[in-house]
Amino acid sequence: MLRGLRVGAGGQGPGASQRRPLTAFIGMLLLAPGPWPLLGAIFPEQIGGFTRGATKDLVASDQALYQEYGLKAAEQADYTAPGKQFTATGWRFRDSTGAFALYESQRANGPLFLQGNYVFRFTGAAPEAADLEPFYAQLPQLDHAPLPALIGFLPKEGLIPNSERYILGPVSLDRFESRISPSIAAFHLGAEAQLGRYRTPKGDLTLIIFNYPTPKLSRDRQEAFQTIPGAVAKRSGPLVAVIVQPPDPDTAEKVLGQVQYQVNLTSNEEVPANEAKGVARLVLTGFALAGFLGGLSIVVGVGFGGFRFVLRKLGRAEDFDGLISLRIGDK
């Protein structure tokens, strides 16, 4: 594992010849076939009353799949407290969608915690939720982006628990529904998909819902999906729901019929004001303004009178007592 290594561009300057072998070694390491460790630095020295012990960077079990999910770091650390111990495993992804994809694919293997673009697993005497909140708050490069809306379109009736899988590209499609080719799914159009397995009286089936940027694209893709032998496809807005080789056509139609695209629009409207309260507030404001101006007039009058009084005491009041008049037209 290489930490804190900085490789500059170019080969000029003092020490350039010494850097070339190291740079070549790094290049061979990056080009070498995997799996190879992903640098972590996820877990802090303390979580609640637990102190971190040994840590290690993890190796992705399915390099291609994790790369498609956008995995950036994976780390495992041991934590101990008096009479207690737990092991924490964490994965950091490029965004929350990739983290959710891993969460769906791995939660059947044990409890997982999804936090933005992070996924965690704690085994042993896991810390309390109150101890985890400060830990979550200081996570580096934490992404709070919302999860994709597509995950809410899977019908609930008959859905096999923990069978959901989120599809981000050709690799995950091949892992979870290889009967659909990437060329027909057309991920280059910006498609993503949510998969779920269903238990029916005639047998299990797999439903996969693709989401496309526009309804026109989904209409074109529906026709393409229907070219797959034994496939049944339904379009709803930008969504295309597909079942490949269902055990019974009627059962497939029943499941597909539950897929409905609904747009929820939120309109921010100004709450109507109470007109009577508005008029009363306007009157009160007018009285307040009149009172302020009246008070200001009194203060100015008293100030001017006091100023004249002081001038009289100084014998200079005559400077202000004279009256100048203009007689226009007098000869």
How would you sum up this structure, described in words?
It is a single chain. The chain is α+β, with helices and mostly antiparallel strands. Among the domains are: 32-137, no CATH class; 149-256, no CATH class. The protein has ten helices and eleven strands. The strands form two sheets. Strands 1-2-3-4-6-5 form a six-stranded antiparallel sheet. A five-stranded antiparallel sheet has the order 7-8-9-11-10, sandwiched between helices. A hairpin with a 2-residue loop joins β10 (231-236) and β11. It is elongated and about 115 Å long. The model is unreliable at 1-37 and 265-272 (pLDDT under 50).
Kindly summarize this structure in a few lines.
With 331 residues, the protein is α+β, with helices and mostly antiparallel strands.
The strand order across the widest sheet is 1-2-3-4-6-5
Unreliable residue runs: 1-37, 265-272
- The Rg value, from CA coordinates, equals 37 Å
| Residue share in helix | 25-40%
**Average pLDDT rating:** 82
Q: What distance lies between the first and last C-alpha atoms, to the nearest angstrom? A: 112 Å
Q: State which percent range the strand residues make up.
A: 15-25%
Please identify the structural class as seen in this structure: alpha+beta
Q: Mind describing the biggest β-sheet? A: 6 strands, antiparallel
The counted number of beta strands is 11
Number of helices: 10
SSE order, one letter for each helix or strand: HEEHEEHEEHEHHEEHEEHHH
Gross morphology is elongated
